[in-house]
From TrEMBL:
Ranges for domain MATH: 16-151, 173-300
Coiled-coil ranges per UniProt: none
Superkingdom of this protein's organism: Eukaryota
Name of the molecule in the record: MATH domain-containing protein
Pfam family, one: MATH_2
Length: 310
């Protein structure tokens, strides 16, 4: 066995245990723009697999002058969340002159870990095209060749739950305007705007006329909330920048607050308990409340999302 660059090459007189791919007119693959070929599925160790062949090298990895060959886990989407499969595998190339096989594998004893985020392992430089096309080697005879695989599952385990955070590169700001009428006659603890959409989520503005929590009695409290937090998948969170504003209808000196918050099923309402002093809000000189009406605005910018790993 020859171990070089982290993987081993050896010769075997036994044919591959699990699968063989025989290719006729191999040269026509590249000529017909087939840069990647996936075999049919085969079963080994209770899982389904495929061989993935790049006849002129894996261009995505800038491989040239080599055949690239990989083992891929098929139907990885059916795996349970957090499930991992540790595998020893060997990939084969038939020597038709000697009727034996070149075997390429990772260093002996090394187990490769397959899971939903890594479904493919193998060799970018499985064999050089120069060696592969050398008729004296026996790998390509009359434009015919054969590859194979043996797959042995060593162990399986679950790593538990996980999450995926995705930050938004090109953000969009959504704006909603709410006209609140007959403010002095609002007798409920909390008033809500109509639901509105922002970034694939539904929101509403919540106004507490007599304040909330530490603002109770002396302040007007203003919040942004998810309209129906029960629709948010378990474990999901939304990171958003929000601007809440009460318009000054006389001088244009609007009163606003700006902050970033995480929204989730357990924290679906964020804002300011002490948004504005009630005496300032109701003052006829400041222009926030005119003829018993006020205008509230919300701007929402989604900055990131967290979801559970599939």
């Amino acid at each position: 066995m020859d171990v070089k660059d982290g993987f081993a090459r050896s010769i075997s007189n036994s044919s591959p245990t699990h699968y063989v791919v025989k290719i006729q007119s191999f040269s026509l693959l590249t000529k017909n723009s087939i840069e990647r070929y996936e075999s049919g599925e085969f079963e080994a160790g209770g899982y389904k697999w495929k061989l993935v062949l790049y006849p002129s090298g894996n261009k995505k990895k800038n491989v040239k002058d080599y055949v690239s060959l990989y083992l891929a886990l098929d139907e990885a989407s059916s795996l349970q969340p957090g499930w991992e499969i540790y595998v020893n595998f060997r990939l084969f190339l038939h020597d038709q002159n000697k009727d034996n096989y070149l075997v390429v594998q990772d260093a002996p004893g090394k187990e490769m870990r397959f899971h939903k985020l890594k479904v493919e392992w193998g060799f970018d430089q499985f064999i050089s095209l120069k060696e592969f096309n050398d008729g004296s080697k026996g790998y390509m005879v009359d434009d015919i060749c054969a590859f194979g695989a043996e797959v042995f599952v060593c162990k399986e385990r679950s790593i538990g739950k996980g999450e995926s955070l995705m930050m938004v590169k090109d953000t969009t700001t959504y704006k909603h305007v709410w006209e609140v009428t007959n403010f002095p006659k609002l007798d409920s603890e909390c008033c809500e705007s109509k639901p509105f959409n922002a970034g694939n989520y539904t929101w509403k503005i919540k106004l507490y006329p007599k304040g909330k929590d530490v603002g109770l009695g002396n302040y007007l409290s203003l919040y942004l909330a998810l309209a129906d937090p029960t629709t948010l998948p378990q474990g999901s969170k939304i990171y958003a920048q929000i601007v809440l504003r009460i318009l000054d209808q006389k001088q244009g000196k609007h009163h606003f607050g700006k902050a970033n918050y995480w929204f989730s099923t357990s924290s679906f309402e964020n804002g300011a308990a002490k948004f504005i002093v009630l005496s300032n809000f109701t003052s006829q000189n400041l222009g926030y409340l005119v003829k018993d009406n006020c205008t509230v605005e919300a701007e929402v910018t989604i900055l990131g999302m967290v979801g559970t790993l599939p």
